[in-house]
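Final report, closing paragraph on structural work. Over the funding period we assembled a curated collection of sequence-structure pairs, and we close with a single example.
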Amino acid sequence: MKSNSVIKRLVCLLTFLTLVLLSSGTFAQQILIKAGFDGDSILIGDQINFHLVVEQPSNVKVTFPTITDSLVSKIEVLQPAKVDTAQIGNGNIRIHKQYIITCFDSGVYKVDPLKFYAGSGANRDSFATQPVKLVVVTIKLKDNKTIADIKNVIQIPLTFAEILPYMLIGIGIWLLIAFIIYIIIRIKQKKPIFGFSEKPKEPAHVIAFRELEKVKGEKLWQKGQTKEYYTKVSDIVRAYFEDRFNIPALESTSDEILLQAKSIEIIDNRTVEELKQLLELADLVKFAKVEPMPDENENSWQKAYEFVNKTFQEPIIEQPNSEGN
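Its predicted structure, as stored:
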Protein backbone atom coordinates (compact mmCIF):
# COMPACT_ATOMS: atom_id res chain seq x y z
CA MET A 1 0.00 0.00 0.00
CA LYS A 2 2.82 2.34 0.94
CA SER A 3 4.61 1.68 -2.37
CA ASN A 4 1.47 2.51 -4.34
CA SER A 5 1.07 5.81 -2.45
CA VAL A 6 4.67 6.82 -3.17
CA ILE A 7 4.24 6.01 -6.85
CA LYS A 8 1.11 8.19 -7.06
CA ARG A 9 2.93 11.12 -5.44
CA LEU A 10 5.84 10.80 -7.89
CA VAL A 11 3.42 10.77 -10.82
CA CYS A 12 1.68 13.94 -9.57
CA LEU A 13 5.02 15.70 -9.06
CA LEU A 14 6.22 14.79 -12.56
CA THR A 15 2.92 15.97 -14.04
CA PHE A 16 3.20 19.34 -12.25
CA LEU A 17 6.79 19.88 -13.36
CA THR A 18 5.82 19.02 -16.94
CA LEU A 19 2.98 21.58 -16.91
CA VAL A 20 5.29 24.23 -15.49
CA LEU A 21 7.88 23.63 -18.16
CA LEU A 22 5.26 23.63 -20.91
CA SER A 23 3.68 26.86 -19.66
CA SER A 24 7.03 28.60 -19.36
CA GLY A 25 7.84 27.80 -22.97
CA THR A 26 4.43 28.74 -24.38
CA PHE A 27 5.21 32.46 -24.95
CA ALA A 28 8.72 31.63 -26.15
CA GLN A 29 7.31 29.67 -29.05
CA GLN A 30 4.76 32.35 -30.02
CA ILE A 31 6.66 35.66 -29.63
CA LEU A 32 9.48 36.98 -31.87
CA ILE A 33 11.48 40.09 -30.98
CA LYS A 34 13.99 42.06 -33.05
CA ALA A 35 16.17 45.15 -32.49
CA GLY A 36 18.48 47.01 -34.85
CA PHE A 37 19.57 50.17 -36.65
CA ASP A 38 18.99 51.13 -40.28
CA GLY A 39 22.70 50.57 -40.85
CA ASP A 40 25.91 49.60 -39.10
CA SER A 41 27.48 53.11 -39.01
CA ILE A 42 26.78 56.82 -39.21
CA LEU A 43 28.78 60.02 -39.58
CA ILE A 44 29.29 61.93 -36.37
CA GLY A 45 26.29 64.21 -35.74
CA ASP A 46 24.16 62.40 -38.32
CA GLN A 47 20.82 60.74 -37.54
CA ILE A 48 19.65 57.14 -37.88
CA ASN A 49 16.57 55.10 -36.97
CA PHE A 50 16.58 52.47 -34.22
CA HIS A 51 13.82 49.82 -34.44
CA LEU A 52 12.14 47.52 -31.95
CA VAL A 53 9.81 44.91 -33.51
CA VAL A 54 7.62 42.37 -31.73
CA GLU A 55 5.51 39.71 -33.45
CA GLN A 56 3.02 38.21 -30.96
CA PRO A 57 -0.47 36.83 -30.49
CA SER A 58 -3.00 39.63 -30.34
CA ASN A 59 -4.34 38.36 -26.97
CA VAL A 60 -0.95 38.53 -25.22
CA LYS A 61 0.25 41.69 -23.46
CA VAL A 62 3.91 42.44 -24.22
CA THR A 63 5.74 45.15 -22.29
CA PHE A 64 8.49 47.01 -24.20
CA PRO A 65 11.67 48.23 -22.52
CA THR A 66 11.60 51.88 -21.41
CA ILE A 67 13.71 54.20 -23.61
CA THR A 68 13.77 57.93 -22.70
CA ASP A 69 16.37 60.48 -23.78
CA SER A 70 19.23 58.11 -24.54
CA LEU A 71 19.66 54.60 -25.88
CA VAL A 72 23.06 54.09 -24.27
CA SER A 73 25.69 56.56 -23.13
CA LYS A 74 26.31 59.26 -25.79
CA ILE A 75 23.61 57.92 -28.16
CA GLU A 76 20.81 60.46 -27.85
CA VAL A 77 17.14 59.88 -28.67
CA LEU A 78 15.87 62.89 -30.66
CA GLN A 79 12.19 62.00 -30.95
CA PRO A 80 9.80 59.79 -28.96
CA ALA A 81 9.02 56.45 -30.51
CA LYS A 82 6.61 56.21 -33.42
CA VAL A 83 4.41 53.14 -32.88
CA ASP A 84 2.90 51.15 -35.72
CA THR A 85 0.69 48.06 -35.23
CA ALA A 86 -0.27 45.70 -38.07
CA GLN A 87 -2.13 42.39 -38.43
CA ILE A 88 0.10 39.61 -39.80
CA GLY A 89 -2.38 36.68 -39.87
CA ASN A 90 -3.19 33.67 -37.71
CA GLY A 91 -4.33 35.96 -34.91
CA ASN A 92 -0.87 37.53 -34.61
CA ILE A 93 0.14 41.20 -34.73
CA ARG A 94 3.36 43.08 -35.33
CA ILE A 95 4.19 46.09 -33.11
CA HIS A 96 6.92 48.36 -34.46
CA LYS A 97 8.55 51.18 -32.50
CA GLN A 98 10.93 53.54 -34.29
CA TYR A 99 13.31 55.99 -32.59
CA ILE A 100 15.44 58.69 -34.23
CA ILE A 101 18.89 58.80 -32.60
CA THR A 102 22.19 60.64 -33.07
CA CYS A 103 25.68 60.72 -31.61
CA PHE A 104 28.30 63.47 -31.41
CA ASP A 105 31.30 61.35 -30.35
CA SER A 106 33.05 58.93 -32.64
CA GLY A 107 33.53 55.35 -31.56
CA VAL A 108 31.92 51.91 -31.44
CA TYR A 109 28.82 51.71 -29.27
CA LYS A 110 27.19 48.50 -28.07
CA VAL A 111 23.51 48.33 -27.22
CA ASP A 112 23.10 45.54 -24.65
CA PRO A 113 20.15 43.14 -24.89
CA LEU A 114 16.85 44.86 -24.17
CA LYS A 115 14.30 42.97 -22.09
CA PHE A 116 10.65 42.45 -23.00
CA TYR A 117 7.99 40.93 -20.76
CA ALA A 118 4.94 38.89 -21.80
CA GLY A 119 1.95 37.89 -19.72
CA SER A 120 1.49 38.68 -16.03
CA GLY A 121 1.58 37.05 -12.62
CA ALA A 122 2.82 33.47 -12.42
CA ASN A 123 2.72 33.15 -16.22
CA ARG A 124 4.92 36.21 -16.85
CA ASP A 125 7.84 35.50 -19.12
CA SER A 126 10.82 37.64 -20.24
CA PHE A 127 12.68 37.92 -23.53
CA ALA A 128 15.83 39.73 -24.57
CA THR A 129 17.05 41.06 -27.91
CA GLN A 130 20.41 40.31 -29.38
CA PRO A 131 23.07 42.98 -28.68
CA VAL A 132 23.62 45.42 -31.55
CA LYS A 133 26.49 47.74 -32.42
CA LEU A 134 26.73 51.15 -34.03
CA VAL A 135 29.93 52.65 -35.40
CA VAL A 136 30.12 56.48 -35.31
CA VAL A 137 32.85 57.75 -37.64
CA THR A 138 34.37 61.22 -37.68
CA ILE A 139 35.22 63.49 -40.63
CA LYS A 140 38.54 63.14 -42.34
CA LEU A 141 40.20 66.58 -42.35
CA LYS A 142 42.16 67.89 -45.29
CA ASP A 143 45.18 70.21 -45.38
CA ASN A 144 45.83 69.80 -41.63
CA LYS A 145 42.63 71.61 -40.72
CA THR A 146 41.38 71.12 -37.20
CA ILE A 147 37.81 72.36 -37.75
CA ALA A 148 35.35 71.25 -40.40
CA ASP A 149 31.62 71.17 -40.95
CA ILE A 150 29.92 68.02 -39.80
CA LYS A 151 27.57 68.10 -42.79
CA ASN A 152 27.31 70.07 -45.99
CA VAL A 153 25.03 73.08 -46.08
CA ILE A 154 21.48 72.01 -46.92
CA GLN A 155 19.88 74.13 -49.61
CA ILE A 156 16.27 74.68 -48.55
CA PRO A 157 13.94 75.72 -51.42
CA LEU A 158 12.68 79.28 -51.10
CA THR A 159 8.97 79.81 -50.59
CA PHE A 160 6.88 82.29 -52.58
CA ALA A 161 6.39 84.40 -49.43
CA GLU A 162 10.18 84.74 -49.10
CA ILE A 163 10.65 85.66 -52.77
CA LEU A 164 7.72 88.12 -52.94
CA PRO A 165 9.45 91.11 -51.20
CA TYR A 166 12.40 90.88 -53.62
CA MET A 167 10.02 90.62 -56.59
CA LEU A 168 8.19 93.76 -55.46
CA ILE A 169 11.47 95.64 -54.99
CA GLY A 170 12.63 94.58 -58.47
CA ILE A 171 9.34 95.63 -60.07
CA GLY A 172 9.49 98.96 -58.24
CA ILE A 173 13.04 99.63 -59.52
CA TRP A 174 12.05 98.85 -63.13
CA LEU A 175 8.96 101.07 -62.86
CA LEU A 176 11.10 103.91 -61.50
CA ILE A 177 13.61 103.55 -64.36
CA ALA A 178 10.78 103.50 -66.91
CA PHE A 179 9.22 106.63 -65.35
CA ILE A 180 12.55 108.50 -65.46
CA ILE A 181 13.00 107.59 -69.13
CA TYR A 182 9.44 108.75 -69.83
CA ILE A 183 10.11 112.12 -68.14
CA ILE A 184 13.31 112.63 -70.14
CA ILE A 185 11.50 111.89 -73.42
CA ARG A 186 8.62 114.27 -72.58
CA ILE A 187 11.06 117.04 -71.67
CA LYS A 188 12.99 116.59 -74.93
CA GLN A 189 9.71 116.72 -76.83
CA LYS A 190 8.76 119.85 -74.87
CA LYS A 191 5.51 118.25 -73.81
CA PRO A 192 3.86 118.12 -70.40
CA ILE A 193 5.13 115.28 -68.23
CA PHE A 194 1.60 114.08 -67.67
CA GLY A 195 -0.34 114.00 -70.91
CA PHE A 196 -3.63 115.05 -69.40
CA SER A 197 -5.77 117.21 -71.64
CA GLU A 198 -5.68 120.75 -70.34
CA LYS A 199 -8.86 122.75 -70.02
CA PRO A 200 -9.06 125.21 -72.90
CA LYS A 201 -8.26 128.75 -71.81
CA GLU A 202 -11.20 131.12 -71.91
CA PRO A 203 -10.97 133.96 -74.44
CA ALA A 204 -9.90 137.31 -72.96
CA HIS A 205 -13.20 139.03 -73.83
CA VAL A 206 -15.29 136.32 -72.13
CA ILE A 207 -13.36 136.83 -68.90
CA ALA A 208 -13.59 140.63 -69.20
CA PHE A 209 -17.36 140.66 -69.82
CA ARG A 210 -17.94 138.33 -66.87
CA GLU A 211 -15.84 140.40 -64.51
CA LEU A 212 -17.45 143.69 -65.63
CA GLU A 213 -20.91 142.27 -65.00
CA LYS A 214 -19.75 141.14 -61.59
CA VAL A 215 -18.51 144.63 -60.71
CA LYS A 216 -21.74 146.16 -61.96
CA GLY A 217 -23.71 143.85 -59.72
CA GLU A 218 -21.65 144.75 -56.64
CA LYS A 219 -22.79 148.43 -56.85
CA LEU A 220 -19.56 149.63 -55.27
CA TRP A 221 -19.73 153.35 -56.11
CA GLN A 222 -23.34 153.46 -54.99
CA LYS A 223 -22.08 152.28 -51.58
CA GLY A 224 -19.39 154.96 -51.46
CA GLN A 225 -16.57 152.57 -52.49
CA THR A 226 -15.57 154.65 -55.51
CA LYS A 227 -11.84 153.96 -55.35
CA GLU A 228 -12.38 150.20 -55.21
CA TYR A 229 -14.85 150.47 -58.10
CA TYR A 230 -12.39 152.26 -60.41
CA THR A 231 -9.53 149.97 -59.37
CA LYS A 232 -11.50 146.90 -60.41
CA VAL A 233 -12.78 148.39 -63.69
CA SER A 234 -9.34 149.61 -64.79
CA ASP A 235 -7.68 146.29 -63.76
CA ILE A 236 -10.22 144.37 -65.83
CA VAL A 237 -9.41 146.49 -68.89
CA ARG A 238 -5.66 146.16 -68.31
CA ALA A 239 -5.90 142.35 -67.94
CA TYR A 240 -7.98 142.13 -71.11
CA PHE A 241 -5.53 144.36 -73.01
CA GLU A 242 -2.59 142.20 -71.91
CA ASP A 243 -4.26 138.88 -72.73
CA ARG A 244 -5.77 140.08 -76.02
CA PHE A 245 -2.73 141.84 -77.47
CA ASN A 246 0.08 140.12 -75.57
CA ILE A 247 1.28 143.39 -74.06
CA PRO A 248 2.26 143.67 -70.33
CA ALA A 249 -0.49 146.14 -69.52
CA LEU A 250 -0.79 145.19 -65.84
CA GLU A 251 2.77 146.42 -65.27
CA SER A 252 2.52 149.48 -67.52
CA THR A 253 1.39 153.03 -66.80
CA SER A 254 -1.72 154.46 -68.41
CA ASP A 255 0.40 156.51 -70.86
CA GLU A 256 2.34 153.39 -71.91
CA ILE A 257 -0.89 151.49 -72.52
CA LEU A 258 -2.32 154.31 -74.61
CA LEU A 259 0.87 154.51 -76.63
CA GLN A 260 0.65 150.78 -77.37
CA ALA A 261 -3.05 151.09 -78.22
CA LYS A 262 -2.34 153.73 -80.86
CA SER A 263 0.00 151.30 -82.63
CA ILE A 264 -2.62 148.55 -82.86
CA GLU A 265 -4.37 148.62 -86.22
CA ILE A 266 -7.81 147.43 -85.12
CA ILE A 267 -8.15 150.15 -82.44
CA ASP A 268 -9.42 153.38 -83.99
CA ASN A 269 -8.75 156.88 -82.61
CA ARG A 270 -12.18 157.26 -81.02
CA THR A 271 -11.71 154.00 -79.10
CA VAL A 272 -8.25 155.13 -77.98
CA GLU A 273 -9.75 158.44 -76.77
CA GLU A 274 -12.46 156.67 -74.75
CA LEU A 275 -9.81 154.36 -73.23
CA LYS A 276 -7.75 157.43 -72.35
CA GLN A 277 -10.70 159.07 -70.54
CA LEU A 278 -11.37 155.87 -68.59
CA LEU A 279 -7.75 155.31 -67.48
CA GLU A 280 -7.08 158.99 -66.60
CA LEU A 281 -10.26 159.22 -64.48
CA ALA A 282 -9.37 155.94 -62.74
CA ASP A 283 -5.89 157.31 -61.91
CA LEU A 284 -7.39 160.54 -60.50
CA VAL A 285 -9.78 158.58 -58.28
CA LYS A 286 -7.09 156.15 -57.07
CA PHE A 287 -4.26 158.61 -56.52
CA ALA A 288 -5.80 162.09 -56.25
CA LYS A 289 -8.96 161.00 -54.41
CA VAL A 290 -11.22 162.72 -56.93
CA GLU A 291 -14.95 162.06 -56.46
CA PRO A 292 -16.59 161.66 -59.91
CA MET A 293 -20.23 162.39 -60.58
CA PRO A 294 -22.68 159.43 -60.74
CA ASP A 295 -23.03 159.73 -64.51
CA GLU A 296 -19.23 159.63 -64.85
CA ASN A 297 -19.18 156.38 -62.89
CA GLU A 298 -21.81 154.91 -65.20
CA ASN A 299 -19.96 156.13 -68.29
CA SER A 300 -16.66 154.66 -67.09
CA TRP A 301 -18.16 151.18 -66.85
CA GLN A 302 -19.79 151.68 -70.27
CA LYS A 303 -16.48 152.77 -71.86
CA ALA A 304 -14.74 149.69 -70.45
CA TYR A 305 -17.48 147.45 -71.83
CA GLU A 306 -17.38 149.15 -75.28
CA PHE A 307 -13.57 148.89 -75.46
CA VAL A 308 -13.75 145.13 -74.98
CA ASN A 309 -16.72 144.81 -77.31
CA LYS A 310 -14.99 146.71 -80.15
CA THR A 311 -11.62 144.97 -79.92
CA PHE A 312 -12.28 141.33 -79.02
CA GLN A 313 -11.61 138.49 -81.42
CA GLU A 314 -13.69 135.37 -81.67
CA PRO A 315 -11.61 132.17 -81.28
CA ILE A 316 -10.95 130.36 -84.54
CA ILE A 317 -12.33 126.82 -84.50
CA GLU A 318 -10.53 124.55 -86.96
CA GLN A 319 -12.89 122.45 -89.02
CA PRO A 320 -11.78 119.00 -90.18
CA ASN A 321 -11.01 118.79 -93.87
CA SER A 322 -13.65 116.87 -95.82
CA GLU A 323 -12.52 114.55 -98.58
CA GLY A 324 -13.27 115.82 -102.05
CA ASN A 325 -13.24 119.55 -101.06
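Helices lie at 2-24, 26-30, 160-188, 204-218, 226-245, 254-262, 269-288, 294-311. Residues 278 and 300 are 6 Å apart (CA to CA). We thank the funder for supporting this effort.
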